[in-house]
Specification:
Blueprint: H1 3-6, H2 15-23, H3 25-32, H4 42-53, E1 61-62, E2 67-68, E3 70-72, E4 76-80, H5 88-103, E5 110-115, E6 120-125, H6 128-146, H7 165-169
Parallel strand pairs: 4-5
Antiparallel strand pairs: 1-2, 3-4, 5-6
Helix pairs in contact: 2-3, 2-5, 3-6, 5-6
Length: 171
C-alpha cells in the first residue's frame, strides 16, 4: 500500500469508484487503498473478455482517473457491461464519465450502457438532474475514500459474487 493511500489521500474519483460506491462502500474504501482481488476474479476476467471482443472498432478514451469505453460523434458516452441485468451503478458510472468530460469542456449529450450478452441497451440522460446526481455520487465516494476505516460489511448474501468476499468474510 502506498504512503499516499495509507494516509487517506486517494486522489481523483474514477468510474470504478462510483460503481463500488453504489455496490458496497466497504469495497470502495478497500479499493481506494490499493486492495485489488479483482485480478483473481473469474467474473472480472469474463467481463474483460466481453469488453475486448464486442464493439471492437471502438477505442477507449483514457481520462486519467477514468477510462471510458468509447464516445461517439455528438459526445455520447458508451459503456459496455458483461452483466445480464442493468444496475443503477452502471448508469451512475456513465453519468460520472459525462461529468468528467463536461469538466474538460465537452458538450455531452448523454450516454448508453450496452449489455451485449442480453442484446440490450439502456440510455442515460445528461441534464441538470443527472449532473447533480453525478456530483453527489462523486462527493460521497470522496467521503468514503477519506474515511479512517472501512464501512461495515454488507449481509453475506449480498456478497455472493464479490471478489472481496474472502477479505470481508474469510473466517
Amino acid at each position: 500500500m502506498s504512503e499516499r493511500a495509507a494516509s487517506g489521500h486517494q486522489g481523483q474519483v474514477g468510474g470504478v469508484h462510483i460503481k463500488y460506491l453504489l455496490h458496497c462502500r466497504r469495497q470502495l474504501w478497500l479499493y481506494s487503498r490499493g486492495y485489488r482481488p479483482e485480478r483473481r476474479s473469474e467474473d472480472v476476467a469474463f467481463g474483460e473478455v466481453v469488453d475486448a471482443t464486442t464493439y471492437t472498432r471502438r477505442r477507449d478514451l483514457d481520462l486519467g482517473e477514468a477510462k471510458v469505453d468509447w464516445v461517439t460523434t455528438g459526445a455520447v458516452v458508451h459503456e459496455t457491461k458483461s452483466s445480464r441485468s442493468p444496475a443503477p451503478a452502471h448508469a451512475a458510472q456513465v453519468r460520472h464519465y459525462c461529468l468528467l468530460l463536461e469538466r474538460r469542456g465537452v458538450t455531452v449529450r448523454g450516454g448508453t450502457v450496452h449489455y451485449p450478452l442480453i442484446r440490450r441497451t439502456v440510455d442515460v440522460p445528461w441534464d441538470s438532474a443527472a449532473r447533480s446526481q453525478a456530483e453527489q455520487a462523486e462527493a460521497e465516494a470522496a467521503e468514503v475514500m477519506a474515511a479512517p476505516g472501512p464501512q461495515a460489511r454488507l449481509p453475506r448474501g449480498e456478497c455472493r459474487k464479490c471478489s472481496y468476499l474472502d477479505y470481508c468474510w474469510g473466517d
